[in-house]
Amino acid sequence: MIRPLRLGIAGLGTVGTGVVNIIRNHAGMLQLRGTCPVGISAVSARSKSRNRGVDLSGTAWEDDPVALATRDDVDVFVELMGGADGPALAATKAALAAGKHVVTANKAMLAHHGQTLAEAAESASVNLRFEAAVAGGIPVIKVLAEGLVGNRITRIMGVMNGTCNYILTRMETAGLPYEEAFAEAGALGFLEADPNLDVGGIDAAHKLVLLAAVGFGTRVDFASAELQGIGTISIEDIETAAELGYRIKLLGVAAMGDAGLEQTMMPALVPCNSPLGRLEGGTNMVVIEGDSVGQVVLRGAGAGQGPTASAVVGDVMDIARGIRLPVFGQAAASLVKAEPARSSARSAWYIRLALRDRAGTLARLAGALSEAGVSIDRLRQKAHANDSAPVVIVTHPARRTRIDAVLEAISATGDATTPPIALRIVEM
Ligand code: HSE
Fold it and tell me: Within a domain: residue 285?
C-alpha cells in the first residue's frame, strides 16, 4: 500500500479551511498528480468550537501548535497562523527540528527569520516552502526559483498589496479622498488587524525581500528595505499623474547594482498603458526581468481563501512528488549578505510641492534644481489655495541622490508650506 503524505495544519482561518477544502474536494486528482494520497492527520487553531463550515470530526485536534508540529503522524507541518514570532515561529522551529517538512504562508516570519529557518530546514534535509507568502495565488517563487533558474535576474518589481492597490484604485476611479477609500477597504474586511502593515508598505516589503533573496541569492534582509506607505498620496497627486499619463502604485523594486542591493517599497508612477498601470483593485502583479528571458509578467489574486490555499497545496504537492529544493533557490549557507544600496538607476521623478506665494520662490526652486544638476521636463503651477501654490515638476532622468539634494535645498529655503514629496517614475 502507498504511504499517504500526512499533514498537520495549524491555523484554521480563511486560508486553513481553504486548504482543508482543496485536500478533501480534490483528493483523487491530487493522488494521481502526487503519486500518493494526501491526508490531514491533525489540526490546531485558537478555538476548537468555532463553526468553520468544514467537517473535522475525523481529524485529531491539538491545542498546542508545537505538539501538532512534532506528532509522529505528521509529515508536513502547514503553518497558517501568521505572526513573525510567537507560536508560529516556535512551532515551525519545532517541526524542522523534528525532521518535518514545513509549508507556510507566513511572510512576516520569513522576512525576519528566513535565514535561520532555511539553515534549520536544510540541515534537517527537509523542505521549507512559502509560495503562499508572496502574492497569494501567483506561483511566483516557483517561477523565479525553477522556471527562471537559468537567468541572472536583473530586476524584480511588484504590486503585492491588494489592499493598497484597492485604495489607490478607488481614489482614482471614484474620486474618494484617501481617508474614505481607507475606510471603505476596512469595511470590506481588506485591512490587516494592524492596517499599517498594509498602508505602511510593510506587508508588501515582507514579500519583496523574500523575492529578492530568491532572485539575487542574498540573505533575506528586511531591515535594509526602504519603505514609504501610501498615506501621503493625495487625490491631487493621482489626478495630476493621470493627466501626465501615469498611475500611482505602491511599487516594490528589488535590483542588484554595483553599489549593492536596492529594495524599495514606495509609491511610484507607472505608465497608464503598461501592465502595472492597468492593474485594478485588489489584484497583484509581479514583473521579473532576467538576462536571457527578458521580462515576465505575472498577474493574479494576491489574497483570499482560494488563491492562497491554491499556493499552499502547490507546495504540499511538490513534497508529495518527492521534490526537495533549497529554501531560497540555493543552499542557505551560500546566500550572501548584500550591501544595502539606494537606487542608482536614473529615472524621471514627479516632485510635488506646496510653495509660499511670494516673489522669488520659483527662481529659488529652479536654482535648487540647477545646483543639483536636475533638468526639468515639465513644470506646472495649479490654482492657489490660500498662500500656498501647488507646483508639480516632472524631471528628466536623474539619480536618486540628486533628487534628495533638491528636496533638501527646497526645505532649507523655507519656501515649502508642507514637506515636498518625490515619486519615482518607473518605465516598463
Ligand atoms: N493584506 C494583504 C493584501 C494580503 O492586501 O494584499 C496578505 O498579505
Answer: yes
CB 126 near ligand 1, within 6 Å: no
First vs last C-alpha separation in the chain: 53
Euclidean distance between CA atoms 68 and 72, whole angstroms: 9
- The Cα–Cα gap between 42 and 227 comes to 39
Nearest CA owner, ligand 1 atom 8: 203
> Is the pTM for the entire model greater than 0.85?
yes
What are the φ and ψ backbone dihedral angles of 19, each rounded to 5 degrees?
Answer: -65, -45
Q: Domain check: are 119 and 190 in the same one?
A: no
Q: In order along the chain (428 residues), what is the average pLDDT of each group of 10 residues?
A: 92 96 97 95 93 90 98 98 97 98 98 98 98 98 98 97 96 95 95 95 98 98 97 94 96 94 97 96 96 98 96 98 96 96 89 92 94 95 81 96 95 92 94
Ligand 1, residue 107: give the atom nearest the CA: 8
Nearest ligand 1 atom to the CA of 302 is: 6
User: 112 and 158, same structural domain?
Assistant: no
Ligand 1: which residue has its CA nearest to atom 2?
A: 161
- For ligand 1, say whether the CB of 287 is within 6 Å of any of its atoms: no
Q: What is the tally of structural domains in the chain? A: 3
